[in-house]
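Hello, quick one for you while I still have it in my head. I'm working through a protein record and want to make sense of it properly. Would you mind checking whether the tokens look sensible for this chain? I owe you a coffee for this, so here goes:
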Amino acid sequence: MLKTVLLFTAAASLFAQTEPQTLAALRYTEIAVGTGAPAASGKKLTVHYTGWLSDGTKFDSSVDRKEPLSFVQGRRQVIVGWDIGFEGMKVGGKRKLYIPYQLAYGDQGVGPIPPKAELIFDVELLDVADAPATPPGIDVLVPYQDLEAKVTELARSLPPEKFAKFAHIFLRIASLNQSFLEADEADTAEISKLKPDEQIEARDKIVDLLVQSFAAVHKNLETARAGHLGGDATLFGKATTRRGLFAALDEAIGEQYGQALALRNN
């Protein structure tokens, strides 16, 4: 039996409608009913699939590759039609999904999928598992982690005789991290007054200070609530949010890292 699982109300008309209008509908056919754990929003689903265009052209298949696909339902890691198409399924279940272009790749299409293409998927739900929690600040945390790894690797890899040339950059980055946290910058300020030969002797302390400053910001972001990141803040006298401050921190550290690379290559 073919079922409709999602309706959109048409809202384009200038006049009131007496009945809700269907704009796009996802349909599916139940091929086999599963008996295992149910799919649910926020759960990690592992699936096998084969995708077809409406003319019968096969464009992709995890079955052919022998590589199941995993995604977290409801986090928009897949097309909208997939986020809703597994609703009500249980492990072991199989469906044929008929997904209109509005819930797939839209007006433009992508790769082998033409514009406004309805897609047909044979899907099988293989596993349902708890998904790792995603921090609300993941969008800014990921690039920050990349910078953190690059900066600390550079700081640790420099031989002592070259370290003094870079010390001011690492201290500046530590200071930027501390400023974001509104933390005491006394240690950073004190070390920055040391002469180059003294900074070589303080190499381990500078690297430790740098690593600790990254770790503190990292922890702050991982535990921050979404409401906190959206809270009001100011940057150079202009209104922004805590997320905006962090994006600016990302950019500032990136500039400092770029200077360090230029200095290393000279």
About this structure: The longest strand covers residues 119-130. The chain has two domains: 2-130, 138-265.
